[in-house]
Amino acid sequence: RRVGSGMASLTARRRDELNKSILAYLKKSGYNDALGALQKELDIQPETKYEGTLERKWTAVTKMSAKIMRLETMVETLQEDLKNFGKGKKKDASLALPRAPAKFTCKGHKSAITCVAFHPVYSQVVTSSEDCSIMVWDYDEGQQEKKLKGHIDVVQHVTFNQDGKLLASCSADLSIKVWNVEKALCVKTMKGHDHTVSCVEFIASGDRLMSCSRDKSIKLWDVQSGYCLRTIQGHRDWVRQVKITPCSTLFASCSIDHTVRVWDFKKAEEIITFRDHKHVVDAIAFSHERADKVLLKHVHGTNGSKEAEAKTAGSNAKETSSPYTPQFIASASRDKTIKIFHIPSGAMVADINGHENWVRGVLFHPSGKYLLSCADDQTIRVWDLEKRFRCRKILEDAHDPFVTCIDWNMSRPVLASGGVDNIMKIWECS
Question: How many helices (H) and strands (E) does the chain have?
């Protein structure tokens, strides 16, 4: 009955076009029984000129539907901004989000950018690239300051220690290098992995660092001596990233084996494994106190939210004496989703869909209210953790064709991104 009423709303010409397009599709797809039955019912013959019409129309409809959803999100965002930041209302700088267009478009690399990392103190951002180089930029001016050379293959990842005096990098040349950025000097080279080293991270004290590799292992290194202190096995395929909590009690890893694993740092023992992704997990990020305060409401529900807030408030009071242990971890995958897991319970609290291609990077906003991600669909997206993880903002065409990495400056509201277009962009936030 519904089909009949829908057809009745079409003109005779449109109805004839639709019928012939369906017949052409059935014939082209080899659905001969269905074709014969429909031909008999309609008493018409398929025509060659209608081949592909149904597919084109359907593609156009899905694209238009996605565009409408994006526009609706933009309208909701603008309405919310008007409500919160309208005339006479003071803006909360802690809620600043990146805005288009990018303030600076920085060119210098000859191949895709693999990682961006802000200096924790100075107005510098570092990029690594498939061109085997590392570049240091002034993000206030958008100018290149230094170029670090030493790796002989793709530089996969870069990271600063807590005071910014040292920078670590890792490469497909199987090495990890530690740099004095001020002098543009490599002060230590570490070797021990049997394949591409994909990620490296300093622990909070700065005297050790962790690395992960395509050889399926995670290693702990002494920065001063360059010795490998421990090798940790568990993943069944290439380990893509490793992250360490600020308190150095936990570390996490993600892999081509579709898993996210959380480990006890001291014992180097696996605590929990999350197997919810259906494809490679490329990136992970631990939450922080402010994000936990928001996310715990999704775990405990409305009734338990007060208790969760009380727990977080209690931990806030101890923040100066004891670093905080995050309770959540976010993961970005080639299955086009972002997932957020509660580590103590093992529960998945969010399964975020919206990206149209592989998700490459993810990070928690300093306010704790948002999550940022980047993907191969050319976008950087902001997700609202308070409002059922809906998409709060989209930066369209951030890079062409893929956005490979993002980083947030913790001292000022600035976002950096890198892409396959060999470009690093600086985004002001407001």
Answer: 5, 28
